Amino acid sequence: MSKNWHELFMYDESSPTFLRWKVDVLSGKQGNQQNAIAGDVAGSLPSSSRYHSTVAVGYEYFLVHRVIYEMCHGEIPAGMHVDHEDGNGYNNRISNLRCVTRAVNMRNTKKRSDNRTGVTGVCETKSRHGTMNITASWKKLDGKQGSKTFSVAKYGADEAFRLACEYRAAMVAELNKAGAGYTERHGK
């Protein structure tokens, strides 16, 4: 949903959220309670439980990076995401924001905190017969999942892990040649 953000906000790189109010913000039943004065920082910085800054307009909350993107580039097409290229949810500088598909956005993510192998896209798996494997996985250009499994029984744990890591890296390089958009910071 796109609004005329320029009526409410101004983009300002000196603001910690990169937005400032353009108007006074009033609330309350009579509209006589002043919440912000024109020129005040608009929005709140992310807390430890949130990745992105938000700003309240009336009773609705909006992601600051999406507001800034729409102010500078127009409405975000349905299904598209606004990605922080450097991965820093605090950095809402317009030069750091890009409109991408979910798949491309995911190719610019850091390693998940629950990753147990230390390598994105490489995990321990068990076959239906209960044997241990190391599996490399990736998303193909068509969005489907690709994977290759290396048997611990056949190669040993260290070698299966090494082979899976190499295979995934080769697949990511091949996908990037085709324009997949995996970034250097993906999985780091």
Describe, in plain words, how this protein is organized in 3D.
By secondary structure, the chain is α+β, with helices and mostly antiparallel strands. It has two domains: 5-106, Homing Intron 3 (I-Ppo) Encoded Endonuclease, Chain A (Alpha-Beta Complex), CATH 3.90.75; 122-177, no CATH class. 21% of the residues lie in helices and 26% in strands. A hairpin with a 5-residue loop joins β3 (25-27) and β4.
Explain briefly what this protein structure is.
This protein has 188 residues and is of the alpha+beta class.
Number of helices: 4
Shape, per Cα inertia axes: elongated
- The strands making up the biggest β-sheet line up spatially as 9-10-11
Measure the end-to-end span: 33 Å
Number of domains: 2
CATH structural architecture of the largest domain = Alpha-Beta Complex
Order of helices and strands: EEEEEEHEEHEEEHH
Main sheet makeup? 3 strands, antiparallel
Strand content: 25-35%
Low-confidence stretches: none
CATH fold field value of the largest domain = Homing Intron 3 (I-Ppo) Encoded Endonuclease, Chain A
- Which structural category do the helix and sheet elements fall into? alpha+beta
As a percent range, the share of helical residues equals: 10-25%
What is the average per-residue confidence, as pLDDT, rounded to a whole number? Answer: 87
CATH secondary-structure class of the largest domain = Alpha Beta
Number of strands: 11
Radius of gyration: 22 Å
